[in-house]
Write a structure and sequence with these properties.
Distance between the termini: 31 Å
Number of domains: 1
Largest sheet: none
Strand content: under 5%
Order of helices and strands: HHHHHHHHHHHH
Number of helices: 12
Structural class: mainly alpha
Helix content: over 70%
Radius of gyration: 20 Å
Length: 258
């Protein structure tokens, strides 16, 4: 498909995309190495109870907490930058079928981010287990639950980029879209903390951060969804947001959104 090829050229040639991918790699692998190294050096100082419940899989993937912001920005800028520059009009002239245009962008974004996210998640996991070896309990990809956790961690990051893309298409402004994305990840959980405990237990499992933790852990924590249920909830979020974004895109003009 010509439009998909054109979107791929845009995606890999935009400076913000390249920087976003670099930041994702650094945050996921780099911070993961730092956290794993600190865990190893302080292992003997950790009390027995915490050692007993230690999860080497999710610990080695701890860098995903920071990487989720980078992938969201990548998704947001992939569409909002065209509104900021005004090039969306040129794009629509070249590809007047709006559904095909967005479908092409989503294909490029999802495939690219899936490859990047899976690569960094597997790298972070394998390096982390190597750091833990001989001192801290380790996990193996031969364990199906561990393998699932690493794969779903990459899927989580990829789907976050789609959420960022949908917000960019809805709001049509880079700053506003990024602000909303960050607020969803950080501000909403802070608000939930001030709710009664029973409400916290009910609402926290629906937060993106909690969903990501559930998807990247071999075991299910109390008051959270399991890995596959979390994936389903996240998919619902993605489908709804993309649906709203597509509907608005079909109905609105190609203005800059400013």
């Amino acid at each position: 498909m010509a439009s998909t090829k054109a979107e791929w050229i845009k995606f890999r040639s935009v400076r913000s995309t390249i920087m976003g991918v670099v930041v994702t790699v650094v945050l996921t692998i780099g911070l993961g190495i730092l956290i794993d190294s600190v865990t190893r050096s302080h292992w003997n100082q950790i009390n027995g109870i915490r050692q007993a419940i230690f999860d080497p899989t999710s610990r080695s993937l701890a860098g995903n907490f920071f990487a989720q912001f980078a992938v969201g920005v990548i998704g947001t800028l992939f569409i909002s930058s065209e509104y900021t520059s005004g090039s969306i009009r040129t794009t629509l002239t070249a590809v007047p079928n709006r559904f095909r245009l967005i479908a092409s962008k989503l294909i490029v974004l999802m495939v690219s981010m899936f490859v990047v996210a899976e690569a960094v998640c597997f790298a972070a996991f394998l390096i982390g287990q190597r750091i833990f070896l001989g001192v801290v309990p380790t996990a193996s990809l031969t364990n199906s639950d561990v393998l699932r956790s690493v794969i779903l961690s990459g899927v989580y990051l990829m789907l976050l980029s789609v959420i960022g893309f949908a917000l960019g298409l809805i709001l049509r402004q880079s700053a506003a879209s990024i602000s909303v994305f960050v607020s969803i990840l950080l501000i909403i959980p802070l608000i939930v903390i001030f709710l009664p405990q029973s409400w916290q237990n009910s609402f926290s499992k629906f937060e993106l951060g909690t969903i990501g933790q559930s998807m990247s852990s071999p075991s299910t924590a109390a008051d959270t969804f399991g890995a596959w249920a979390s994936f389903l909830v996240l998919m619902i979020y993605v489908v709804v947001l993309v649906g709203v974004a597509m509907t608005l895109f079909e109905r609105r003009d190609a203005g800059s959104g400013q």
